[in-house]
Amino acid sequence: MKNNIILFLIFFILIYVIYYVLYVRKQIKYDKKKVSSDLKILEIYYKINVKKIGYQRVLRILNFVNALMLTILMMIIMNLDKFIYKFLIAIILIIPLIWATYYFLAKYLKYLERKSE
Fold first, then answer.
1. Residue ranges of the domains in the chain?
2. How far apart are CA 65 and CA 69, in angstroms?
3. Is the pLDDT of residue 92 over 80?
4. Residue 63 pLDDT class (50, 70, 90 cuts)
5. pTM attached to this predicted model
6. How far is it between the farthest Cα atoms of the chain?
């Protein structure tokens, strides 16, 4: 149990830092043409106003949620033995996990949007 918690924290920090360096740090100003697909999903499907909340704040929250989602997925499939099972479970779980995390993320961002008015 202790090893799993340590491994979870290491994976989370590693994914968070990599995502931050490759994505968040480069996106300083909001440009509607250069917005990533995950941010477009939040803007178009969930109707989140990124400018009201703050572009950098939304990117940091999105970075945290994506790192957490990927870490949870990795911890689930890591305990399986065969590669084919790992692959199949990852494919099966990724869509519902993305949907659920982005749904709750959109609810939280809507709350932040109302709070900033």
1. 2-115
2. 6
3. yes
4. very high
5. 0.85
6. 51
Q: What is the pLDDT of residues 12-35, one digit of tens each?
A: 999 999 988 888 777 767 777 677
Residue 56 CB burial class (10 angstroms; 0-12, 13-18, ≥19): middle
**Cα 55 from Cα 31, distance rounded (Å):** 10
3-state secondary structure 47-104: CCCHHHHCHHHHHHHHHHHHHHHHHHHHHHHHCCCCHHHHHHHHHHHHHHHHHHHHHH
What is residue 56's predicted lDDT score, i.e. its pLDDT? 86
For residue 4, give every residue at least 6 positions away whose Cβ sits within 8 Å of its Cβ, in sequence order, or none: 75
Phi and psi for 47 in degrees, rounded to 5? 55, 50
Q: Which two tokens stand for residue 72?
A: 């949870």
Amino acid at 11: F
As a whole number of angstroms, the distance between CA 58 and CA 107 comes to 13
